[in-house]
Amino acid sequence: MSTETLVNRARTICEQNGARFTSIREKVFRLLAGLNGGIGAYELLEQLKQTEPGAKPATVYRAIEFLTEQGFIHKIESSNAFMLCHHFGQHHPAQLLICDHCGNVTELHSSLLQDEFNRQAVSQGFVIKHQTIEAHGLCKICKAKQ
């Protein structure tokens, strides 16, 4: 899906939610849309400074917070990085395949895995409020190079 299509979809969702998709938020969204993996907040700040020289860490953190609340991005907990969710529009559990060699991240949506995980949690009397499962290894391309 093209960046423009993603931006237009995000803008529409923000309008439906009564949220403001400001120019800074859109710029951070666009930066994330151009990546195949995750990026840390300070790396994101350095990229943002190319078009917004006055940007501060708080600028990026506020944009990340907004994009997360809208369900547009996922946090990769193991690397404290962020990535665009190409299936946004509603909050959903994510399963991430993270290549330790090239940094590529693939997002999966396995309802079977999600259902079993929830079933196991309920059997333990646990209520899941947020779920991201991360698996580290090698992607197909990096595996072939070895």
UniProtKB/TrEMBL annotation:
<dbReference type="GO" id="GO:1900376">
    <property type="term" value="P:regulation of secondary metabolite biosynthetic process"/>
</dbReference>
<dbReference type="GO" id="GO:0008270">
    <property type="term" value="F:zinc ion binding"/>
</dbReference>
<dbReference type="Pfam" id="PF01475">
    <property type="entry name" value="FUR"/>
</dbReference>
<feature type="binding site">
    <location>
        <position position="142"/>
    </location>
    <ligand>
        <name>Zn(2+)</name>
    </ligand>
</feature>
<feature type="binding site">
    <location>
        <position position="91"/>
    </location>
    <ligand>
        <name>Fe cation</name>
    </ligand>
</feature>
<feature type="binding site">
    <location>
        <position position="99"/>
    </location>
    <ligand>
        <name>Zn(2+)</name>
    </ligand>
</feature>
<keyword id="KW-0804">Transcription</keyword>
<dbReference type="GO" id="GO:0045892">
    <property type="term" value="P:negative regulation of DNA-templated transcription"/>
</dbReference>
<keyword id="KW-0238">DNA-binding</keyword>
<feature type="binding site">
    <location>
        <position position="139"/>
    </location>
    <ligand>
        <name>Zn(2+)</name>
    </ligand>
</feature>
<keyword id="KW-0963">Cytoplasm</keyword>
<dbReference type="GO" id="GO:0000976">
    <property type="term" value="F:transcription cis-regulatory region binding"/>
</dbReference>
<keyword id="KW-0479">Metal-binding</keyword>
<dbReference type="GO" id="GO:0005829">
    <property type="term" value="C:cytosol"/>
</dbReference>
<comment type="similarity">
    <text>Belongs to the Fur family.</text>
</comment>
<comment type="subunit">
    <text>Homodimer.</text>
</comment>
<keyword id="KW-0805">Transcription regulation</keyword>
<dbReference type="GO" id="GO:0003700">
    <property type="term" value="F:DNA-binding transcription factor activity"/>
</dbReference>
<keyword id="KW-0862">Zinc</keyword>
<protein>
    <recommendedName>
        <fullName>Ferric uptake regulation protein</fullName>
    </recommendedName>
</protein>
<dbReference type="InterPro" id="IPR036388">
    <property type="entry name" value="WH-like_DNA-bd_sf"/>
</dbReference>
<keyword id="KW-0408">Iron</keyword>
<feature type="binding site">
    <location>
        <position position="102"/>
    </location>
    <ligand>
        <name>Zn(2+)</name>
    </ligand>
</feature>
<dbReference type="InterPro" id="IPR036390">
    <property type="entry name" value="WH_DNA-bd_sf"/>
</dbReference>
<dbReference type="InterPro" id="IPR043135">
    <property type="entry name" value="Fur_C"/>
</dbReference>
<dbReference type="InterPro" id="IPR002481">
    <property type="entry name" value="FUR"/>
</dbReference>
<keyword id="KW-0678">Repressor</keyword>
